[in-house]
Amino acid sequence: MESAILQESDAEPAVETQRVLTAASNHDLRSLRTLLRIASAGAASVQDPENGYTPLHAAIAGADPSGKKPQANGVPSGEHVEGQAEEQESDNEDAISTVKLLLQNGAIWNDLDKNDETPGCLALRLGLTDLYNLIVDAGVRAEILLSRLDEYEQLKDNSSNEDPDTELETAPETASISTPPSSEEPTTQVEESTSNTLPPSQDPQPNQPSYLASPLSFHPTRILDASSNSVMMTWETQLMAQTATLLAPNPGLRILNIGHGMGIIDTEFQSQSPSTHHIIEAHPEILARMREQGWYEKGDVVIHEGRWQDVLPKLIEVDDDDDNNEDGKEAQMFDAIYFDTFAESYSALRTFFEDFVIGLLDEG
After folding, report:
1. What's the pLDDT tens digit per position in 244-274?
2. What's the chain's Rg over C-alpha atoms?
């Protein structure tokens, strides 16, 4: 098998793409290893021109139990086949090994297919929990790595004759990053902001200023920015519903949400009958959509237009000597806070927890 692949390593890119996708779909680890070694760069993230599948999509789709025929050796579908459970377990292990191999060779964990599904979305829809968790873990690792890289300063190449030992001694250390909050607290899904050393057209990830100036496209299942990055997706609904129930188990609570997006979490909070419901949103097109959908007319909803970095200090810091502070108005306090912004780094989340949460979250 390996020799046959090596003899045809100069095949057209389309043929190479199909071979990688086929090997991934069949969980043919031996062939896939060889193809990834001899193929052109980026082979782990090629895409099928018809359905947009990457090798990760193909490997996950190939593990779909409903796609496997339960008929073998003339035994009709539905009848027990001895060893069938063992075979399915073996197939699952092969799928896991295939996904790990692809990720180790640079497969992109959040590429979209023609159905606007990431590999993780596909695994979740097919009920493949083990594969879904692998993709989630890859995404977390990628975000943590990007947050670390964002702390580095770019070294200047002042002289080609500079002593390399000296350069190593003067290389800056990375700033420490605080541990993300536990799963019991509201967490955030964010895109990592990037360095300003690249022109905007070459930025691999959006940053907040470019995102806020970017036109958005609204689809039934997601919101996309101008670069087709997913701002929010409907598959998050179940997660947000469970989070809203945990954060606001009883009616009459004071809620703060930062980042409206598609309105999923705010709709869930509304179903909990809060006494007051504050929403901070910065993107002008999402604010316009909120107005169209009637969020501004909801009696218990207070909408703050702008960046949370600008809004929160006004909620926390109330000057008792201010003539505009009627009746000694106190700072806003909340029983539950949810934070889910886009195009911000983990350092922004750290700032939110360190500088604002303690002044916003009421005791008990």
Report:
1. 999 999 999 999 999 999 999 999 999 999 9
2. 25
